[in-house]
Fold:
Amino acid sequence: MDTSGSSFASIVVALVVLAAFLASAPRMLRLSGRPIRVPVLAVVLVVVIGIPSIAQYLGVPAVGDALRREPDATLQHGEWWRVLTSLLAQDGGLVAAIFGLVVVAVAIAFSGWIQGAWLTLAIFLFCSIVLNLLAIGWGAVGGGTSFASDGTMLSVLALGLVQARNRIVMAAAIVAIAGGILLVVIADAHGVAILLGAVIGATHGLLSRRRSPATGDAAAAISPGRSDPAAHGGRG
Structure:
């Protein structure tokens, strides 16, 4: 499996997923009626991830070497903490690192507003850890936030697919999931992250539908009974 995310297909799918998320998440938030508060979790994660990610390209390359995913060091020397710290070491250069942080900010902010901060953090870390464990098995050196961001965005999109009666939300999720399937077919690990996030979001949505909206659950707040004009063929 390729974990670099540098192939043409991977870049295109990444942009498609981001576009789908930006088309869907604000609409889901509006349908939910939930308030927009300062995205504290997004700010904290951008700072925590951003400092070492940027530092490795501004004169402190040892930071990246110390934090990135190293299968040999992990399997032969027990450095399993790299499974988590590889989230702090960005591949692809300074521009890619900054872009990755922007995606983290957007994904975490909207997911936090829609799904709640704690669930968002759990999904973000879970997707990163699972994919980095798999990447160690694949013998892939590297790091970055793309696995975590992809999984988080797809959890929101798949939640919308299950919960929201809105054509744009549903279409965005389907397009993003199709992109994930394509990447899996061509052996790109980011497809696995996309599908993992989709499974998490769909499961969350299905379980939430069994609960009473009175519980105040984040997913239940995206009430199937509420809609915007796009749900009935109007403009989205």
Observations:
- The chain has a mean pLDDT of 88.
- The two ends are 38 Å apart (CA to CA).
